[in-house]
């Protein structure tokens, strides 16, 4: 065992390197419009490991992804890069409602009900 392992002096440097690698990899995914919204976690893991040159634990990777702020959601199967909207979100403009017309219709119903 090395002294640096006991003192943890390399740990902070490694954490910073991991965070920077995650930001770089996710930055490429965010910038590339042709990528799918959901990125397989294994693919991100492989890209980060290639950049760092060391293996990365999936749980450690997910913590770094969360800390980076470059992802809107992450799980052990997929990571959604920041700025990518979920396909279930309705992006259509809100339907406008004419409140006065609704109130008039209700008033007419109430008047007819009283007759």
Word description of this protein:
With 115 residues, the protein is mainly alpha-helical. It has one domain (3-85): Nucleotidyltransferase, domain 5 (2-Layer Sandwich). Helix content is 58%, strand content 10%. The chain has a 3-stranded antiparallel beta sheet. A hairpin with a 3-residue loop joins strand 2 and strand 3. The longest helix has 23 residues, at 9-31.
Short recap of the structure:
The chain has 115 residues and is mainly alpha-helical. The protein contains 5 helices and 3 strands, in the order ααβααββα.
Biggest sheet strand line-up = 1-3-2
Mean pLDDT: 78
Count of DSSP-assigned helices: 5
Rg for CA atoms: 25 Å
H-E string: HHEHHEEH
- What general outline do the C-alpha atoms trace? rod-shaped
Overall tally of structural domains? 1
Report the biggest beta sheet as strand number plus sense, adding barrel if it closes: 3 strands, antiparallel
- Poorly predicted segments: 6-10
Which bin fits the share of residues in helices?
Answer: 55-70%
Strand content: 5-15%
CATH architecture: 2-Layer Sandwich
What is the terminal-to-terminal distance?
93 Å
Q: How many beta-strand elements?
A: 3
Helix/strand/pairing class, anyone?
Answer: mainly alpha
Provide the CATH topology: Nucleotidyltransferase, domain 5
